Amino acid sequence: MKRIVEQTADGSATLFIPEMDEHYHSVKGARTESQHIFIDMGLKASRALQPHILEIGFGTGLNALLTLEEAEREGRQIQYTSIERYPLDWTDVDALNYSDNPLFKKMHFALWEENTIISTNFTLRKVESDANAWIPSLEPGSIDIVYFDAFAPEKQPEMWTMPLFEQIYAAMRSGGILTTYCAKGVVRRMLQTAGFTVERLPGPPGGKREILRANKL
Predict the structure, then answer these.
(1) Is the separation of the CB atoms in 201 and 207 below 8 Å?
(2) With DSSP H G I counted as helix, E B as strand and the rest as coil, what are the percentages for the chain, rounded to 5?
(3) Number of Cβ atoms within 10 Å of the Cβ of 183
(4) Which domain covers residue 153, as residue numbers?
(5) What would the pLDDT profile of 13-71 be if each residue is shown by its tens digit?
(6) Is residue 17 part of a domain?
(7) Residue 187 has what pLDDT?
(8) Is the Cβ–Cβ distance between 164 and 148 less than 8 Å?
(9) pLDDT at residue 102, as a whole number
(10) Cα–Cα distances in Å, from 10 out to 27, 30, 198?
């Protein structure tokens, strides 16, 4: 699929897929959105000392980059597992100019299906698979934080289903947190039915009015 680099309102870039009429990030601010939803409302809200994060949709690697930066600031050791069905080429990602940090490139060139030590505080495992097929293989109670960053439900409906949310719930530890940009009522109700306690939180500055955070008590 063709991907076009577009600037977003906060000055950071994203990719646009004309075939799907879909952006990888909010046009209101790619970096602002990722920082708010996944770092501020997810990682920073977790009490896990050495969290295991599961990301649904590695995409451009922006969420992983921001998590790495936070891990380095806090000195907090993070295991980061990211599943991606359609990996991007480095040339597409490099055009976004997200970071000159060589560790960002190291993440993208890390081998798939293997644990790669990116820094003393950040270990990455990228999984090239369909989430619905792979998530059932996760050990129950092994995940502390979930970044649910699939494409929108109307673009990728197979990623927003009760069975998938139930499997994610089973894989999470007590006290686990799932965050997502999608605040649709149908998604909130599915998360609640799966067992989560769900909060509607303010969205990122200048962006969506609300986001969701789901907690496993």
Answers:
(1) no
(2) 30, 30, 40
(3) 16
(4) 29-215
(5) 999 999 999 999 999 999 999 999 999 999 999 999 999 999 999 999 999 999 999 99
(6) no
(7) 98
(8) no
(9) 97
(10) 9, 7, 29
Number of domains comprising the chain: 1
- Residue 108 falls within a domain, yes or no? yes
Identify the CATH number of the domain in which residue 206 sits: 3.40.50.150
The distance from CA 171 to its chain's CA centroid, rounded to whole angstroms, is 16
What pLDDT, on a 0 to 100 scale, did the predictor assign at position 82? 98
In a domain, 12, yes or no: no
- Helix or strand holding residue 109 (H, E): helix 102-109
Rounded Cα gap, residues 7 and 217, in angstroms: 39
CA dist., res. 180 & res. 204, Å (int): 12
Q: Which H or E element spans position 208?
A: none
Question: Is residue 180 within 8 Å of residue 194, measured between CB atoms?
Answer: no
- Tell which residue, 164, 160, 167, has the closest CA to residue 187: 160
User: How, if at all, do strands 4-7 and 78-83 pair?
Assistant: unpaired
pLDDT at 1: 84
Burial class of residue 37, CB neighbours in 10 A (0-12, 13-18, 19+)? buried
In Å, how far are 40, 89, 104, 118, 141 from 123, measured between CA atoms?
20, 21, 13, 6, 19
Tell which residue, 148, 138, 140, has the closest CA to residue 177.
Answer: 148
Instruction: Determine, yes or no, domain membership for 7.
Output: no
Distance CA(3)–CA(166), nearest Å, equals 32
Backbone angles phi, psi at 35, to 5 degrees: -60, -45
The CA angle 108-124-196, to the nearest 5 degrees, is 115
